[in-house]
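Hey, can you fold this one?
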Amino acid sequence: MKRVALLIVAGIGLLAVGGVVGWRLHRPAADARAYAVMRLIAIQVSLDEAPAQYVFYGGDSQVELHPGGQEACGLPLVNGGVSGSTAAAYADHLAQLSFTAHPRIAALTIGTNDILMKNAPRSAGPAARFEAAAELIVRRLQGLAPRVVVTALPPVGRELGTLVDAAAVADYSQRLRGLCGRLGCTFTDPFAPLRDGETGYAKPGAMRDGLHLAAYRPVLKALEPTLCGP
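Sure. Predicted structure:
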């Protein structure tokens, strides 16, 4: 009986985790917009109080979840991540922010919310829209900072294989690489140590909930050499 009870509890726990992740992946649009409004206020406060020299890191929850108080290249890091953002949504968010002091370096991680299965991300229309929105973001950042770094998409957990198109991780990352080749930004992959080969999936233990990383500080450390430049 004890064994049965333990199995039931474990099953409930797994369902709860799946439910939380599922809610994140299918968050109602109204909730996402309401959250973005409050998050943009917080980002604007950070920008208004930023020093003359700083690094701005924009993107989705893969950026927002970075711990606070970090530095990059010896400069304060202003976290401009907005959870739940697609590339198109983040282009709109970024357009609403004002930069009294411009960053010395700007970075971008975007795309996780664009590759949900429900979006059919590898079909021609969604892929083209992602690339167009990413270009808007990059051009905006290039108007703010002399150095712009764009990262590959992070991997996803195998447990989300029916919700997220893991094959689109490499596809969209290549699109961002090509975009940087065309626009003059710098492309890099700080998530490489977390990848399980070329599958788009993460190595065991690399993810917290299948969608977000287990640890973010190592990613910033891996990103820093490219951010800081020669």
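Helices lie at 2-25, 29-48, 61-64, 87-96, 124-142, 167-183, 217-228. Let me know if you want another pass with a different chain boundary.
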